[in-house]
Design goal:
The chain is mostly helical and about 120 residues long. It is built from three helices and no strands. About 0% of the residues are buried.
Length: about 120
């Protein structure tokens, strides 16, 4: 009877681990397009001579290049290895990285929106 009480939490942990691996495999397909789109935006800022915006985006572009160059050895492109993502330190680092990048992209969106409205109103 006591063993049956321990079975559902064990299944829940296994289910969460299974979902973590599936999410990791899904994120593998999203990493390279994110980096390429960000590099494209930086090139467009360079062509438009938007120096402040380019300066704000260059640290993240440099981080993306460093992160991609120091990625784990895998068969395909990507950053998240399903076997090492189970490590609590790596998982916590990836979560912090995701939240920081989300904050950067959100602040960038409002900065770009402000710039667009400023140009439309001033002309």
């Amino acid at each position: 009877m006591c063993i049956l009480l321990l079975f559902p939490p064990t299944l829940q942990k296994a289910y969460c681990l299974y979902l973590c691996i599936l999410m990791c495999l899904t994120m593998l397909m999203l990493v390279l397009p994110e980096y390429l789109i960000h590099a494209f935006f930086c090139v467009m800022f360079l062509c438009a001579a938007e120096w402040l915006t380019l300066g704000l985006n260059m640290p993240l572009l440099a981080y993306h290049i460093w992160r991609y160059m120091s990625r784990p050895v895998m068969s395909g492109p990507g950053l998240y290895d399903p076997t090492t993502i189970m490590n609590a330190d790596i998982l916590a680092y990836c979560q912090k990285e995701g939240w920081c990048k989300l904050a950067f992209y959100l602040l960038s969106f409002f900065y770009y929106l402000y710039g667009m409205i400023y140009v439309l109103v001033s002309s």
